[in-house]
């Protein structure tokens, strides 16, 4: 018996659950878990179910389409580890956390490679026997650099690209190659604290909370659909270096949480929002 993840997104109408469950029953599948949500403002229905049985997924999807509203988006995949690549620059906290989780079997993914625009993290990555690709970004136009990064990425077939503090702004031309497939982690200071050293800026402003946001990358800088967020309390006794340390801990936990959701097929990206089950 195999385990499958079924995801359905379509226009909402009466009887959807009944029709879906009827097809599931006819294919002799057992529903282990099931979640639904209706966005009433947009009359949009979302459903995620964990199924157990043995099916031809293409045939199953085809049967479901006949019973659902026109234009329904249906995915049914066998539950299995996904493949990811990681893009990084110099900071090791998010990358290191993912490498350790991968090494210990806690990460529900295979890390195929790490691509970086600095050499500084090569030694760390190679300790885990993972390919490291250095794509120099100095003294080179962004368009050419992105071309070389895309060439390195094209060597791998992956489900998601994870920006583990990859400190480069991606152009729309780059993003269009992997829509809804690039996940970024960012400190939650936008728009007040943009640019270099946001923790020092936050310290100077006397903030009382700091946090992190994991989101899908789109054409608008740091405005992609949000997957996961968290905040922690800080106070006047903390230096900006202490805030930075606390913030980095928050960043890596938020990124790991968002990645877990993506790897378990728990996300629906609709317009500029993410429905999370």
Which features would summarize this protein structure in a list?
single chain, 277 residues, alpha/beta, Alpha-Beta Plaits, Rossmann fold, 3 domains, seven-stranded mixed β-sheet, four-stranded antiparallel β-sheet, 8 helices, 13 strands, 32% strand, globular
CATH third-level topology of the largest domain: Rossmann fold
- Poorly predicted ranges (pLDDT <50, ≥5 residues)? none
Order of helical and strand elements: EHEEHEEHEHEHEHEHEEHEE
Structural class: alpha/beta
Number of strands: 13
Provide an overview of this structure.
It is a single chain. With 277 residues, the chain is an alpha/beta fold. The protein has three domains: 2-78, Alpha-Beta Plaits; 82-169, Formyl transferase, N-terminal domain (Rossmann fold, 3-Layer(aba) Sandwich); 179-277, Formyl transferase, N-terminal domain (Rossmann fold, 3-Layer(aba) Sandwich), CATH 3.40.50. It has helices spanning 16-26, 57-67, 93-104, 122-126, 142-153, 172-175, 198-205, 240-263, and strands at residues 2-11, 30-39, 44-53, 73-78, 82-88, 109-116, 132-134, 160-163, 182-187, 209-216, 226-233, 267-270, 273-276. The protein has a seven-stranded mixed beta sheet with strand order 7-6-5-8-9-10-11, sandwiched between helices. The chain starts with a strand and ends with a strand. The relative contact order is 0.13.
Brief digest:
By secondary structure, the protein is an alpha/beta fold. Helices cover 31% and strands 32% of the residues.
Topology:
Blueprint: E1 2-11, H1 16-26, E2 30-39, E3 44-53, H2 57-67, E4 73-78, E5 82-88, H3 93-104, E6 109-116, H4 122-126, E7 132-134, H5 142-153, E8 160-163, H6 172-175, E9 182-187, H7 198-205, E10 209-216, E11 226-233, H8 240-263, E12 267-270, E13 273-276
Parallel strand pairs: 5-6, 5-8, 6-7, 8-9
Antiparallel strand pairs: 1-3, 1-4, 2-3, 9-10, 10-11, 12-13
